[in-house]
Design a protein that fits this description.
By secondary structure, the chain is of the alpha/beta class. It folds into two domains: 6-187 and 226-259, NAD(P)-binding Rossmann-like Domain (Rossmann fold, 3-Layer(aba) Sandwich), CATH 3.40.50.720; 189-224, no CATH class. It has eight helices and seven strands; from the N terminus they run βαβαβαβαβαβαααβ. It has helices spanning 15-26, 39-53, 67-81, 104-132, 153-173, 191-204, 208-216, 228-239, and strands at 6-9, 30-34, 57-60, 86-89, 135-140, 178-185, 250-253. Strands 3-2-1-4-5-6-7 form a seven-stranded parallel sheet, with helices on both faces. The chain is globular and about 55 Å long. The structure holds nicotinamide-adenine-dinucleotide (NAD). Residues 11-17, 34-37, 63-65, 90-93, 113-114, 140, 142, 185, 187-188, 190-193 line the site of nicotinamide-adenine-dinucleotide.
């Protein structure tokens, strides 16, 4: 039973993080939201979760590229909820270019938001989890944490790094009632992927649907996007007592992409 636990979901103002935050709230958890976006839209999402599910929902605008802001977000959650039981590292960005044309500032931003932020959040939540002898850390990696695609050097490097970090943390906390796992989704239809579809449509002079069929879902044997419902169910299960022996795993949810 995870009812009454408290959760931080980074990057939860959009896409996968927003869906996972909603799933935890509907399971009766108190939630710290995080991410960028229109303040009125974020406030309406936050207040809606509280009203619909009778839980406490807070929002932190912490920038996941800033260690000091990450630490402050964790402190705020611990103060408000009394503890952080579950951490979902989800915030992420993408940029696509050949390595020799890849802008250094984009490399730095992707490494800090997609990888280093997970170090900083874990670094901040672990002392409390260790003290209480219970915790769940769920890192949203990617199929690109297991295999590569061209033009995504920073993203692929960061996601492989997230899986490495997941394994190290899992080993360090294994005897303390804490687990750390990575979820590795294939393509999910979120604003992050919509951006890639639009870019590819321009580059290849294809329609939106042609890009989805011939480029994006070409990697995914099911030829279907992974759904929010499927990801939510996996995240909730990893937070459950029955997942206590799943530790240090990189769990694919990609329609068979990485089986190839
Ligand atoms: P999205 O663009 O819909 O959402 C990203 C979230 O991260 C937003 O809430 C955004 O505000 C937040 N964010 C970005 N930069 C931030 C920063 N500096 N500080 C705080 N928050 C920040 O993307 P998504 O597709 O939902 O992706 C979520 C995660 O899932 C990412 O880590 C992504 O790599 C991973 N993922 C996505 C897919 C996919 O197909 N969509 C597949 C595999 C893995």
């Amino acid at each position: 039973m995870i009812k009454g636990k408290s959760v931080i979901v980074t990057g939860s103002t959009s896409g996968i993080g927003q869906a996972i935050a909603t799933a935890f709230a509907s399971a009766g958890c108190h939630v710290m939201l995080n991410g960028f976006g229109d303040p009125a839209g974020i406030e309406s999402f936050r207040a809606g979760l509280e009203k619909d599910h009778g839980v406490q929902v807070l929002y932190s605008a912490a920038d996941m590229s800033r260690a000091d802001e990450i630490e402050a977000m964790v402190k705020d959650a611990e103060t408000a909820f009394g503890r952080v039981d579950i951490l979902v590292n989800n915030a992420g960005i993408q940029y696509v270019a050949p390595v020799d044309e890849f802008p250094t500032e984009k490399w730095d931003a992707i490494i800090s938001i997609n990888l280093s932020s997970a170090f900083h959040t874990i670094h901040s939540v672990l002392p409390g989890m260790k003290k209480r002898g219970w915790g769940r850390i769920i890192n949203i990696a990617s199929a690109h944490g297991l295999v590569a695609s061209p033009f995504k050097s920073a993203y692929v490097a960061a996601k492989h790094g997230v899986i490495g970090l997941t394994k190290v943390v899992a080993l360090e906390v294994a005897e303390q009632g804490i687990t750390c796992n990575a979820i590795c989704p294939g393509y999910v239809k979120t604003p992050l992927v919509e951006g890639q579809i639009n870019d590819q449509a321009k580059v290849h002079d294809m329609s939106h649907d042609e890009v989805i069929r011939n480029i994006i879902l070409a990697a995914q044997p099911t030829k279907k996007f992974v759904t929010f419902e499927e990801l939510n169910a996996l995240a909730l299960f990893l937070a459950d007592e029955h997942a206590a022996s799943i530790n240090g795993a990189a769990i694919s949810i990609d329609g068979g992409w990485t089986a190839k």
